[in-house]
Amino acid sequence: MVHHVLLNQNYIILIQKQVVLKCLFLFTSENLRNVAFYLHQNREMIHSIKVAPKETKRKTKFSWTRRHFEPTIYEFDNQNSGIKTNISRKSSILEVFQTFFSEELIEYIVEQTNKSFENNTRGDIHSTKATTVPEIYIFLAINMLMGRIHKISLSEYWCKDKLIRTESFREIMSRDRYTLLLKNLRFYDNNIMNHDPIMKRRYIVEQLRTSFKSAFYPFEKLCIDESLLKFKGRCYFKQFVPSKRSRFGIKSFVLCDIQTGYIQDLLVYSGANMIISEDIPSKSIGKSGQIVMTLLKPYLGRGHTLDPSWIIGIAVPLYFSNYIKTSKPNQRVRNGTKK
Fold this sequence. Notes:
It comes from Odynerus spinipes. The chain is α+β, with helices and mostly antiparallel strands. It has helices spanning 8-28, 32-41, 43-47, 93-100, 103-120, 133-146, 167-172, 175-184, 199-215, 286-296, and strands at residues 82-83, 216-217, 221-230, 239-240, 248-257, 263-268, 305-306, 333-334, 337-338.
């Protein structure tokens, strides 16, 4: 075999390959003495080989210039801020809940749940009864009530024991019907398949995002931070955040109105390949910047002031004029830089 060597580095690699191949051939021939002799004979050549250093990735450097700069400050008009739906302090709890969970959304859940009933029917007489919009509202109300009244197990909510029973659950819905709805509840169409990690919840999440934004317009100051919804079930993008109170759960990036604490918008974190937005490229501002700009897109150029508790990168302020940055109490500052 004839090798044309042009560079010293290629020559070193070629010698390494020849030494290894010859050693392997001798080992397969079980001639260990020849192996020792060959290595001893070529010891000077082997020790003289220098491994080429690995190439390190160069970090992107910013070129800074000093000049007089006057940023464009947008005046904020707070006349448009506040509630944008027909609810008030006199509104009932159901009316407030229907602001976010509209009847159209419940009808979609009913449709998909009834499809699940049809697919899972196995001679059970209760499975033939389709669910309705009022029944799903009752089902959701029971689940929210369970968050206020804690029991050891699900069966205790329908227990007949006078010491621990709660009559309201038995009066609203039977235990068998509740468990049947819980088993067949669906928020998605099984016929539509894609690679979205939260495909089974995507429609509900997008509808809630639309409802959040249409029901309220924020005041001047906005805040972006991480939120952890407590969850210990089976989910591959479940996060463990020791600094949070819940520690285990589903992480979301949340845009909030500082004055009221209202959740204006959110993005569910579903892993490194989470679907954010194709309209905003991540090459120039990074993944975190893409998340921030997706949440802030409807409010750019309207005079809002961003006060992020979440560190969002250096390029995002270039897109957002009224920008302020605060320091968290647990962030240490050394030589003027955060650690």
